[in-house]
Amino acid sequence: MIAAEDLVIRAGHKRLVDGISLTIPPGLVTAIIGPNGAGKSTLLKALTGEIKPASGRVTIDGTDLRRLPLGQLAARRAVLPQASSLAFPFTVHEVVRLGAFDRRGAGAINARVVAALARVDLDGFGGRLYQELSGGEQQRVHLARVLCQLPDPRPDGRSAFLFLDEPTASLDLRHQLMTLSAARDFASGGGGVVAVLHDMNLAALHADRIVVVHRGQIAAEGTPADVLTDALLAEVFGVTLPVGKTAAGVPFILPQAATAA
Amino acid sequence: MTAMSAPAVPAGDRRGRAQLAIMLLGLLLAAVMAAALAIGPFGLPVGRALAILGDWIAGRPAADVTERIVLIDIRLPRMLLGGLVGAALAIAGAMLQGLFRNPLADPGLVGVSSGAALGAVLVIVTGGALLGPLAASVSIGALPVAAFLGGFATTLVLYAIATRRGRTSVATMLLAGIALGAFAGAVTSFLVYRANDAQLRELTFWTMGSLAGSTWLKLAIAAPPILGVLALTPFIARGLDALVLGESEARHLGIDVERLKSVIVFAVAVVVGVSVAFTGVIGFVGIVVPHLLRLAIGPEHRTLLPASALLGAGLLIGADIVCRMVVAPAELPIGIVTAIIGAPFFVSILLRRRGIVDL
Fold this sequence. Notes:
The structure holds two protein chains of two kinds.
Chain A: E1 2-11, E2 14-24, E3 29-33, H1 40-47, E4 55-60, E5 63-64, H2 70-74, E6 77-80, H3 92-97, H4 106-119, H5 135-149, E7 161-165, H6 173-188, E8 192-196, H7 200-206, E9 209-214, E10 217-222, H8 224-227, H9 230-237, E11 239-240, E12 244-245, E13 251-252, E14 259-260
Helix pairs in contact in A: 4-5
Chain B: H1 15-38, H2 46-58, H3 65-100, H4 112-131, H5 135-162, E1 163-164, E2 167-168, H6 170-194, H7 203-208, H8 216-243, H9 247-252, H10 257-279, H11 285-297, H12 301-326, H13 334-352, H14 354-357
Antiparallel strand pairs in B: 1-2
Helix pairs in contact in B: 1-2, 1-3, 1-12, 2-3, 3-8, 3-10, 3-11, 3-12, 4-5, 4-6, 4-10, 5-6, 5-10, 8-10, 8-12, 11-12, 11-13
Keywords (chain B): Cell membrane, Membrane, Transmembrane, Transmembrane helix, Transport
GO molecular function (chain B): transmembrane transporter activity
Protein name (chain B): Iron complex transport system permease protein
């Protein structure tokens, strides 16, 4: 379990994250949503150990994240960044292989790379140059790299954690669903998943738990049906919009119904 | 033997090809080394040169003293120093390019070599004034140390200017490198012109480089640090690969990025400092060699770095043969040859990546 205790992160005088406590349990997909500038990305960076909080701490199974050796941490948590460009002509296979850092034989690692590429619907792309791919394909290459870093959601009997920063941003619908189903598989296998999502419908459909961040604090937390309400949308996102419910009780939001508050 | 179907090499895995290329580069280097011993104004066929070498190694008396002096005291240390410096400059280029995440970083172009040259010239000038007659013997040991410090300081300043929050601006890096190089070059030129010191060689040595002054003593001083950095490269290869993704991404993959960057800056300054101290500023080796190899075997550093060392050594030894022969019995500064080969490469990379430089 990853736990944040009373996190505060400052930039100058502004508190980007202002006293957030949060636990990330294994076995669940947790979505973080919130308006632009709410502090979602900053929170994610603190949870992954990338930035040091001004106060408070983040622990993984009770150990302070920033005290854990980087190699051990990398074996237990992986981070999917928003798409990035590469300066050198790596093939797709080579990029994904960067995720496999343990000292196994070349055959085992190559098999893992091939499996990860198949998982993200990039069969046969191993020999292509990363630069020649579309933005959505590049995004999926990084997802494969991250899956290659954590091939087992429970390495050595302890849960691993996957952090996804807007994983669906440049993807078509089919691959948005594929990405979230890969996240679901990871959680079902006993790992924990945290995804920053902008699409509230995807969050409602695929997350077990939604955390709403607003002005550096947690505005609401719970199941999609509990969190996504007319009142929350008005208060946090500033839109007056009736939240619908599918027959199965999953909330959905139609922007066509919106009127700005 | 029963033919077990070996697991097929998956598409995009270029390691097998890279290992083959490294073996071929090794053979190429051996051929260039033999040629460098045989070719020169004083004719010495390859077979004869190897025979003299064999006699010398086995400790047998020389059949012909002149031939032995030409080979063992002049050509052999020159060839070996050329190979070491070529390998040093090529891996320095590859490491700097990995650090800055762009293929245009070359120690000669971004001012690291000029900073090292300034350090070396300062020692020669001030050393002569401070130490008097002792200067000659002291400064040959102090030269590489001062050149290292000059290169180290330049690399640190360059990194501080060009990198903000883990992202490097290519344009800022190149422009800052030009400014740093011009400044260090100007101070060096001033000192060289003002100095009235017999052992301060002419300015072309510090701007264009030369292997002409190679001796066994210089080789003995240059070899340990350069070979030490070569031995270090397998341990930083994966970190350099991960760094291509960005600093945060590398950290997420378990790389201690701050330590890696310090090691790279230190290693680059060591090999460039030692090279510049004894052979002056030789440009473009660090840009041509890694660029060609990335096209041939891919950018993974665990194969790129050793391949760069081999090709860099071969290239510089080959360039030195050209220097000794085209205007014989005089010699060209070796930087002329490397610039003529290298400048077109630089322009072609720049043209292809104009969008990224974004001026």
